Amino acid sequence: QAQLVESGGGLVQPGGSLRLSCAASGIIFSIYSMGWYRQAPGKQRELVAAVTSGGRTNYADSVKGRFTISRDNAKMYLQMNSLKPEDTAVYYCNADLATPRRNNYWGQGTQVTVSS
User: Fold this and answer.
1) What pLDDT, in 10s, does the model give residues 51-101?
2) Nearest of 93, 90, 89 to residue 107 by alpha carbon
3) Interatomic CA distance for residues 108 and 116, integer angstroms
4) Taking phi first (over 0 means left), then psi (-120 to 50 degrees means alpha), and beta for anything else, what does residue 87 get?
5) Cα separations in angstroms, 61 against 43, 47, 49, 65, 69
6) Is the peptide bond before 85 cis (omega within 30 degrees of 0)?
7) Are the C-beta atoms of 76 and 84 separated by less than 8 Å?
8) Is 87 helix (H, G, I), strand (E, B) or coil?
9) Which residue in 49, 55, 70, 90 has its CB near the most CB atoms, within 10 A?
10) Residue 101 to residue 17: CA distance in whole angstroms
11) How many CB atoms lie within 10 A of CB 16?
12) Pairing of strands 89-98, 10-12
């Protein structure tokens, strides 16, 4: 059974930085697209950033220029700089994995709180 595990969340002051990590584990034949989503209280889950197997990236307009997504084999990262209170949310890792059938997986989420 494949799984995704996030780490790196926490409390940070406005203007600060955090780096989230996501590790895919289990019997995985291929990793297709990967992405980070977030969900704030009372709001729908939204895409923050995504990266394809070929390395192409896309970002939500609200985080462009501040967040950077990257991946290295079965790991994915989200470098978050210049954090704002409105970035406060639970951040989820998401990936399309072949195990060997292609399915979509979610991590358990990690809390990011931006507050002074």
Assistant:
1) 999 999 999 999 999 999 999 989 999 999 999 999 999 999 999 999 899
2) 93
3) 26
4) alpha
5) 17, 10, 10, 9, 14
6) no
7) no
8) helix
9) 49
10) 37
11) 14
12) unpaired
pLDDT in tens, 21-34: 999 998 888 899 99
Tokens coding 114? 């931006």
C-alpha distance from residue 21 to each of 36, 44, 48, 109 (Å): 10, 22, 14, 11
- What token pair was written down for 3? 């799984």
